[in-house]
């Protein structure tokens, strides 16, 4: 089926999973065949059966379960690649996973009128992120077919009466105003998503994150330029040799006069809208906690998978991958994290700065594509041009950063200069007295 061919769910390589423990593995619920039967998700199987039964109750007794399973899952198994034992993970289990997700979405939309037990309330945070793991998915068309059956036999349900599309239910669930999502403020869920084919839940969340910025490219649309401290270096003079592909860390760049600025939050903020001009790098704020680590890591993985599928002009480095490349370059040690924290660019809710640096470094090493040409390539060139050639007085900048950082060091420096000046005057006066005596 054409739908199934375009809905491939790829399993990540083992080295990528091993390097990022806990970010690509479900904690409480497995969806699809790749993580089925894992120890940490076995307790949820009973609740999945209960949700499956509750969803079929909504359809009524006049629905033949076997016919519905065959109709809704046709071509679904072709969406999974790799070594999958479909004798263990059957079409019935795939349907059960789809019904579990839909019943979860419907109960969420019903709100206080839905009957949710305490266990599901306790596990809601973990379930939220498990459903966004890149290889813990079911094909979207399975959910769409099951949802159409729900609409057919539930004409009086509020969801059907308001004619709410399935993608809107998903958007409302994943982007409500809470601590769980860091894309809510920039992408309000009341805006409809385009009515297009989707692969799975993670792709819908991916489209929410990059919505409105798909056609933007910092290398083409933004004018990157630097300014020499002394005003002596022009762009043509300084551009003599190829620039490095990477840039120094935030702490080193700050020592050489680069300023970091948090972009003001607006109604719709592009978290990938990073610019460098007049020695200032402006970066939107990123709230980093355990949940945002999971979300960013899986968006990063899917961004690379999507860039390699269906492209005729080679691999495309997407905005999430480019953002990880940028943060991996800026953050090498905890000192770099502290620089970005002081400027409000990173809102760190993890245990310490080392954990933030380790997260971006491990994730950056797991790029599946060539990242030599990405969204911020032009900006990297300008930063390196300033760092290598434009900073003619970089020794002065280093001196200023070390000795004029606070009022006490400034007073000490002024005292030392004054003492040196008095000593110089005294020496000159002594020499003049000596010559006057000889005459």
Please provide a written account of the structure:
Keywords: Membrane, Transmembrane, Transmembrane helix. The chain crosses the membrane at residues 411-432. The structure is a single chain. This protein has 439 residues and is mostly helical. It has three domains: 2-210, no CATH class; 218-396, no CATH class; 409-438. The chain has 20 helices and five strands. The chain has helices spanning 2-5, 14-19, 44-59, 65-72, 91-110, 118-130, 140-153, 158-161, 166-174, 201-210, 218-221, 235-238, 250-255, 290-308, 319-330, 334-342, 353-364, 377-390, 394-403, 407-438, and strands at residues 259-262, 275-277, 280-283, 286-288, 346-348. The strands form two sheets. It has a three-stranded mixed β-sheet. Strands 4-5 form a two-stranded parallel ribbon. A hairpin with a 2-residue loop joins β2 and β3 (280-283). α5 packs across α7, α5 packs across α9 (166-174) and α15 crosses α17. The N and C termini lie far apart (110 Å).
């Amino acid at each position: 089926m054409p739908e199934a061919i375009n809905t491939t769910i790829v399993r990540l390589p083992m080295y990528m999973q091993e390097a990022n423990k806990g970010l690509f593995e479900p904690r409480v619920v497995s969806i699809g065949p790749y993580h089925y039967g894992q120890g940490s998700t076995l307790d949820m199987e009973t609740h999945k059966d209960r949700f499956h039964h509750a969803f079929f109750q909504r359809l009524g007794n006049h629905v033949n379960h076997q016919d519905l399973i065959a109709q809704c899952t046709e071509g679904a198994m072709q969406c999974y690649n790799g070594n999958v034992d479909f004798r263990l993970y059957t079409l019935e289990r795939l349907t059960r996973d789809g019904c579990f997700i839909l019943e979860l979405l419907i109960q969420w939309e019903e709100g206080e009128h839905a009957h949710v037990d305490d266990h599901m309330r306790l596990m809601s945070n973990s379930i939220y992120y498990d459903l966004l793991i890149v290889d813990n998915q079911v094909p979207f068309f399975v959910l769409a077919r099951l949802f159409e059956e729900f609409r057919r036999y539930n004409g009086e349900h509020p969801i059907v009466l308001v004619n709410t599309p399935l993608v809107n239910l998903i958007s409302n669930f994943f982007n409500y105003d809470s601590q769980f999502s860091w894309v809510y403020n920039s992408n309000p869920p009341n805006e409809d998503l385009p009515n297009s084919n989707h692969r799975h839940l993670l792709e819908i969340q991916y489209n929410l994150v990059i919505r409105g910025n798909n056609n933007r490219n910092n290398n083409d649309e933004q004018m990157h330029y630097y300014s020499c401290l002394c005003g002596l270096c022009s762009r043509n003079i300084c551009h003599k040799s190829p620039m490095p592909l990477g840039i120094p860390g935030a702490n080193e760049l700050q020592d050489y006069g680069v300023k970091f600025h948090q972009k003001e939050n607006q109604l719709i903020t592009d978290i990938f809208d990073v610019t460098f001009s007049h020695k200032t790098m402006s970066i939107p704020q990123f709230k980093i906690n355990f949940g945002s680590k999971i979300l960013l890591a899986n968006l990063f993985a899917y961004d690379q998978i999507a860039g390699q599928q269906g492209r005729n002009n080679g691999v495309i480095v997407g905005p999430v991958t480019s953002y990880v490349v940028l943060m991996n370059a800026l953050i090498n040690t905890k000192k770099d994290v502290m620089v970005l924290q002081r400027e409000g660019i990173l809102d760190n809710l993890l245990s310490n700065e080392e954990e933030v640096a380790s997260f971006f470094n491990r994730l950056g090493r797991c790029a599946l594509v060539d990242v030599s040409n990405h969204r911020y390539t032009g900006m990297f060139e300008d930063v390196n041009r300033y760092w290598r050639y434009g900073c003619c007085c970089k020794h002065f900048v280093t001196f200023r950063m070390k000795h004029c950082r606070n009022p006490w060091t400034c007073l000490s420096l002024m005292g030392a200069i004054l003492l040196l000046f008095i000593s110089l005057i005294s020496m000159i006066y002594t020499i003049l007295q000596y010559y006057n005596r000889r005459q």
